Amino acid sequence: MITISKSKFKQYFESKMYSLYAQPINEASNEQLLNVLASVLKDLIAKRWVDTKIDKQKEVYYFSIEFLLGRQLQSNLLNLDVENIIREGLKDLNIDLDDLIKSEVDPALGNGGLGRLAACFLDSMASVGMSGHGYGIRYQYGLFKQKFVNGFQVEVPDNWLTQESYLWEVVRPNKAILVKFEGDVYLEEHNGNLKVIHKNYIPVMAMPYDIPIIGYENDCINTLRLWKSEIPRRDFGQTTADAKNYSGSYEEALNYRYYTEEISQVLYPNDSNYAGRLLRLKQEYFFVSAGIQDIYRKYKKHKLNIHEFSNKVAIHINDTHPALCVPELMRILLDVEGLSWDDAWEITINTISYTNHTIMAEAMEKWPVDMIKKLLPRIYMIIEEINKRYVIYLNNKYKDQSKVNRMSIIIDGNVNMANLCIASSYSVNGVAKLHTEILKKEVLKDFYEDTPYKFNNKTNGIAHRRWLMSANPNLSGLITDLIGDEWKKDTFKLKELEKYKDDKIILDKLDIIKYENKVKLSNYIIDKYNINVDPNSIFDVQIKRLHAYKRQLLNLINIMTLYHRILDYPDMEIQPRTFIFGAKAAPGYYLAKCIIKVINSVADLINNDYRLKDKLKVVFIENYGVSLAELIIPAANVSEQISTTTKEASGTSNMKFMMNGALTMATLDGANVEINELVGNNNMFLFGLSAEEVLNYNKNGGYSSIDLYHSDLKLKQVVDDLINGFIPNLGKEGREVYDSLITYNDEYFVLRDAKSYEKAQRRLSELYKNKYDWNKMSLINIANSGAFSSDRTIKEYGRDIWFKGCEINGKINKL
Ligand SMILES: *Cc1c(COP(=O)(O)O)cnc(C)c1O
């Protein structure tokens, strides 16, 4: 840990202001102040950061095409335990730390859950004292900014690198790496050995930008290394002798520059959806190749025995996007290190582990053989050889052609990336118990039967430091007042809160904290949208990517049903409710964008209907991201986790909400199942089809949404509202949504679950009348949320996957 006195800090701050900007503090902009502060902090941690890099143990490299970090200042101050000193020091200089915290940009280098998970894992690896580093891409443009224009989503570029360098990064030109695309590959004999020659390739330089990942109150500072693609600089150390020869025309030079720079230009904005674009494949190989070469270079520098590689290095691939780690590691071991195929394979399969994130068919990566062959000729040869050997093994073992086809890596002119990952790794994990069971019994059944020992579950988690300690300081403070602060390093200790579940004074305190958080959110909503929401109403929140399977539409149908009920029975006593949405839709996902438009139109209708007397409000908050999540989640009473059962692999916002005392309205899907195991049916609201019922419908059919629609007049009424002009300012979007439900037989069982959802919502409403019971349930949720810290998740990855059988296993913070 670092220690610094207030006066020393002020001195550093002042002199940094002069060296960076040559001006006095009182003339600096917020942006400059923030830069100076980050710079001082980077200086303070520099020595520790370097020390952490000196390897003593097995290192983990976590490859992910997204890292959704969120702001870093507050998190870094918290983890370094210097927030108070620095707050006081800045105050003396007339600077408000909170202003600086809020002025930091949010690097949106991810779409949603998958990227945020990677960020929580980095935080936890450092905080439990693991040497674990991230590899990803430094996208020039992160996920688009979302604006609403007449209720429609409009995408605006997210230019997060306004200052061309990011606050927390350090660029390392001397560690740049050459990545080769295209060209010709052939074998040449050299003294009786075959040598792989790669000529006429297009050289791209991968420039590393390092971000420190600071552990919580320990000495561990790991690294997130993000690669930027560039045209090789003149002083670039690595030879490009065999590279493609450019004629030297101006146009060719421009095209080449574009080719290289385009690769790390922009993040693909799809969540759970595979778009087979050449540029995406380039991105995948680009960061994988840079990362694997980087690891190998470091390994050789330490003069370690190559046969010890898998004892010193663990490579984890987050979903299939980094699957090319497999052939790239093979390439290095074969072509550079000169190992035999069997030796290289032995090392590779003992080094790589893989996490599956989804069972949805449209998310499965399948790259056309022709595309890979042309872009990555050597990599394709290796994949072909892996496949050839795998198919021989499968044929010998099963003599069942259709099974072999299902398991093949190359089939029907495509490379199946999930199959490549499973065949080439020692561990395959799902992200929640139910998800892993579905993988084993349904989606990956063949593989599970073939190598059951590879399969394991690692239920996702969240960084409780960010999602509770930083985002909800008052709740965090109350918890510490009640049970001390050991829970911060061991979240299972939160369980001790349960002894206060009948303590009226404590429950009232909990209530006041929630109320204050709701006031903060209400102020944001008034400021931004001029909508008055009552902090005494139930804050009912659904924030996550917009996707048909997540069923924002089910939420909307219930809102419409409630709206009609209030109009039909104006004297009915109901708990006032504020429904809050936050969601981006992928720009090319037409139905999702239509749903956004419909929700916004309904919000307009409801918010302006004076007959409701403020009993109902609907707010769709624009541009949902990590920082907004930190504002919204602590203010939520209800957490909407209503995906079609079997479709949400885990979910993580469900965990963030639970930890902040919201009650969960849920289907028994993903990690909701495990929330239910912890708190029981009486402390959450369950509804909807079971996993079995959904799987059965999918296999045997038997669902007719149109029959349901005709048999339930109330339901018919709200569905018809989509197309009969009842919702103002709604054009063809209403019809599109209607068609998804009726014409296309409601793929995600929205209408099928609507009744059961409405009943659960009514039960919830009844319960809220008794604030005492509600707060008791809330406390029980907080007390049982410790299992969902990503510290727990990451220790399990360490114990069962990365360090299995390793000596250091015991050393990591109470693994
Ligand atoms: C946690 C988080 C998610 C994941 O939300 P789910 O509801 O689990 O899909 C997505 N985006 C952001 C910004 C998050 O913080």
Describe the structure.
The longest helix has 26 residues. The strands form 5 sheets. Strands 1, 2, 5, 6, 9, 10, 11, 12, 16 and 17 form a 10-stranded mixed β-sheet that branches. Strands 20-19-18-21-22-23 form a 6-stranded parallel β-sheet, with helices on both faces. The protein is of the alpha/beta class and 815 residues long. It is 47% helix and 14% strand. Helix 10 runs antiparallel to helix 11 and helix 21 runs parallel beside helix 22. Pyridoxal-5'-phosphate (PLP) binds next to helix 6, helix 23 and helix 24. Pyridoxal-5'-phosphate binds next to helix 6, helix 23 and helix 24.
First-residue to last-residue Cα separation = 22 Å
Number of contiguous helices? 32
Beta-strand proportion: 5-15%
Ligand inventory reads: pyridoxal-5'-phosphate
Calculate Rg over CA atoms: 27 Å
Helix fraction bin: 40-55%
What is the strand tally?
23
Query: Can you tell me the residue ranges where pLDDT is under 50 for at least 5 consecutive residues?
Result: none
Helix and strand content put the structural class at alpha/beta
Shape: globular
Average pLDDT taken over every residue: 96
